[in-house]
Sequence to fold (85 residues):
Amino acid sequence: MLNNLSLEEVIGLKLELAAKAAGGMLYGLPIWYSLKNITNDAVLKYAYSATSTKMEAARFLGLDKNRFNQLVKKYQIESYFEEKD
Fold:
């Protein structure tokens, strides 16, 4: 069922679920201004997990190695994928 939804519909659904979990409101959260960071984080995590090497992930995203490494550090991508005990 999820496969039949567009990316925009999935994002809308996730926002709706988050609002319900927060008592029906997300007031005070700067969602509009946070979207670029949220999207960058999601795409970076996908590229990191879907490729075999960091260079391959950087090429997938159209980034040079230095910029890719800066973003991995900024968004703490490696710690996201570390095993938690």
Notes: Residues 5 and 66 are 35 Å apart (CA to CA). The chain is about 70% helix and 0% strand. Residues 31-50 form the longest helix (20 residues). The chain has one domain: 2-81.
